[in-house]
Amino acid sequence: MRKIYIKTGIIALFMVKSVAQTVNIGDLAVAPNTQLSTLFNFDNKSSGDLLIDGNFIAYANFNNDGLVTYSDSSNGKTFFIGTQQQLISGVETAHFQNITFENASDLVPFHLNTIIEVGKNVEFKKGIVDADSYNGKMIFGQNAFHTDASNLSFVDGKVENVGNLDFEFPVGDQYYFRPSYHDKGANANNIYTTQYFFQNAGNQHPYTNKDETIISIDEAEYWNLTQNQGSEKIVLSLTLDTNTTPASFFEENPDTQLAIVRWDDAAQKWVNEGGVTADLLTGANYSKLITTQVGGYGIFTIGIVTNDAPAPPTDLVIYNAISPNGDGINDSFYIKGINKYPDNRVEIYNRWGVKVFDASSYNENDVMFRGYSDGRSTVKRNEGLPAGTYFYVLKYNKDNKMIEKTGYLYLTNDK
């Protein structure tokens, strides 16, 4: 087998046409506005440093045992493109600024047998990334995101996210994209890992062990969510999919409602985390989404629960309909009696679990939600929000005890 060894230098374009493998053992840099393409397997040895500030195109396997990185000021892009299966491997984590996955050889053409970290964006065009079978993982760094994930392209395996941005985990199993949505709090050092499984949770999580309020549990699928670093609760959103979720969970019953349920290791049972259900308009597969603030981590899925649980006693009256049209009627989210508890906080999330409002010392006069975004990231501040169902979290101090209430909020834009 012939090999090419590159010891050092900056190159603008490097095409391999007549060899079976390209090997880097030194310093190799792809400068901005230049391109490096490898038609055959690429191997970055332990002594190799690959700096991608331009376009790097891998048409075959990619292995990294050294350093793969980029300059923070650059917009380097790596493309995994091909018509044959591609193994992405190596003993060292490869750091990419941007990645595009586009391979037409098979439904699952990408085999991830290493850890790759993304600093900016992953574009899922075509081809499922199988990290589960090959013990790999994809990490999204602070402020990183992804686009175009669907049944045609996602990560089948572990996805880790670092940072405090609201994030959709692009996970799925087999041939189904089944994301979860997390609002992860204000700590930029929070780290979470999620994986979706289109299978039964197993004998270690018996479905007969459950809260009395849980009538039935989705035994066909589950999400495993771990908190690697941090201490905050998250707001979690899960979707129902007609391809994976049992049909009984789409049937409407006035005596029941849907909720997110979690396996509690300490109690050795499934617990009812509650939830607000919103109807979606994104296609036949994704028709419903459930959002709630969860009390722990681990195994999650969807449950059918009773809806007649008595509400805890309170002297607050929460008016959960808002129509900010300036007519003086329901122009704001009004919580009658909240002035008696100035040590409070109100958070409001949209149907995807993205925070759109967050205020302390909420009151009945000036600090109020009036249908405009005050989110910290993906929703612009002071921007009118669309009509729909929202989810609120109210926390207030009463007699030195912090009380928490959650529920629906209906926003209309009638003029």
Distance between the termini: 73 Å
Category by helix and strand content: mainly beta
Helix content: under 10%
Total strand segments:
40
Major sheet attributes: 14 strands, mixed
Basic shape: globular
Count of helical stretches: 0
The amount of beta strand, in percent, is: over 45%
Count of distinct structural domains: 3
Q: Could you report the average pLDDT, rounded to the nearest whole number? A: 86
**Low-pLDDT stretches:** 1-18
Q: C-alpha Rg, in Å?
A: 24 Å
Protein name: Gliding motility-associated C-terminal domain-containing protein
Signal peptide: 1-20
Keywords: Signal
Pfam families: CHU_C (PF13585)
Textual characterization of the structure:
The structure is a single chain. The chain is mainly β. It folds into three domains: 1-156, no CATH class; 188-309, no CATH class; 317-411, Immunoglobulin-like, CATH 2.60.40. The chain is built from no helices and 40 strands. Strands 5, 8, 11, 13, 15, 17, 18, 20, 25, 26, 27, 29, 30 and 33 form a 14-stranded mixed beta sheet that branches. A hairpin with a 6-residue loop joins strand 31 (276-279) and strand 32. The protein starts with a strand and ends with a strand.
